[in-house]
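pls ignore typos typing on phone
adenosine-5'-diphosphate + seq
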Amino acid sequence: MTFRIHSRLIAWNLLVVSVVSFILAFFLSPSQLALVILVAASLTFTFSYGVRVLISRPLHHVSVVSRELAAGHLEHRLPITGDEEIAALGTSLNTMAQTLNAKIQQLSDGKQQLELILEAMGQGVMVLDRDGRITLTNSAILKALGTDRDLVRKTPLEAFRRPELENAVRAVLAGKPTQVLETTVGTGTILQASVTPVTNVSGEVDSAVIVFHDLTDIRRTDRMRRDFVANVSHEFKTPLTSIRGYTETLLSGAKDDPGIALDFLRTIERNAQQLEALVSDLLTLAKLEAEVPATREHFDLQSVIEEQIAARKNSILALDIQVTVECPVIQIHADRSRLSTALSNLINNAINYNKSGGQVRLSAEVQNGTMSIAVTDSGNGIPSEELPRIFERFYRVDKARARDSGGTGLGLSIVKHAIESQGGTISVSSKLGSGSTFTIRLPV
Ligand code: ADP
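k done
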């Protein structure tokens, strides 16, 4: 309005000067008229300059800053100049920009915080609009799906290829309460999905949120526990059935034949020993799995090896095995009991799966703070395709031979636990027909 008034004043001014000059032209000489026009022109120029400095320039600033603010550059401020009205306009504009800036900052802080919380969550989160299209995902769900694709605007069916999830989302958006379902995605990741409706202020469902819990590990552990119970039951059943069968036969008359009775009693004794070994190995494994930290002490490695060989003197003699030990006298710092357990199982296997008259060699050294002990035998070796599985519980390569030799199928899994619980590793190399080498590496 101020600008309009001042513009009109300039226009009126010019009009008055022109009219007065025209009238004066009849009364004044040309030189006097020229002087009057010059004076009038100077006055008009000064007046318009004043208008420009006081009104147009500040208004131009207002227009430039308004455009910057509209473009989102809220840090721009107007210099407070010009007449009172324009200065007031500048102050209001500056206050508005400041308030807007603070509000937007607040909103973006809130959004950033929300995004950080979503990213920090272990659970996958997905938000869908009223058409069932994804509007937001966090990285946990992308990780579970094994993708870094942008899923925004896709439907759950396009993202997961699981119709059950799509159906649950459709049901929730149609007014059904929270749906919970289990689904398998990607390369076997098992997810529990809770699809929850989100209502707007008028109480209508206008979006849905899915929270995913990764159940893969829980389900795997469940399956392992079930398999373990089934395996243990099977392992117990075989010797127990044998003991029961032989006992019944003895009771129903075989006891009267001393030759047969002795033979049956020996079989019963062998099966009872097998059960005892099984219980003992199960207890050892349970102790190792109880996650009790290793107790380290200083001891001489050679003495532990000698002890384990001495404990197997009878079977070494019976099978005519030649045992050699290459171990310097070294003090190491490790869990003595767990190392003895591991060595005991490896030496047992090296003897049991050897040929009569074969060799077992134990060599140990410490290099750069790592102790390595290699147990080498001259047995039949292990087929390369079986090697990855021999550390699994109850896995046996030659089942009949393993049982005959009193093996429980738990020895190598005990070795693995006993060594890995101290931060070490166990590895194997084997050649069919030539023998195997099991190597323990342990930081000492
Ligand atoms: P087991 O109590 O039956 O010996 P282990 O867990 O100690 O169970 O070993 C698993 C299987 O690996 C054995 O049944 C056997 O078939 C094979 N194995 C282990 N050590 C040797 C070895 N030194 N030579 C040949 N086969 C072996």
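The longest strand covers residues 189-199. The chain has a mean pLDDT of 89. more later
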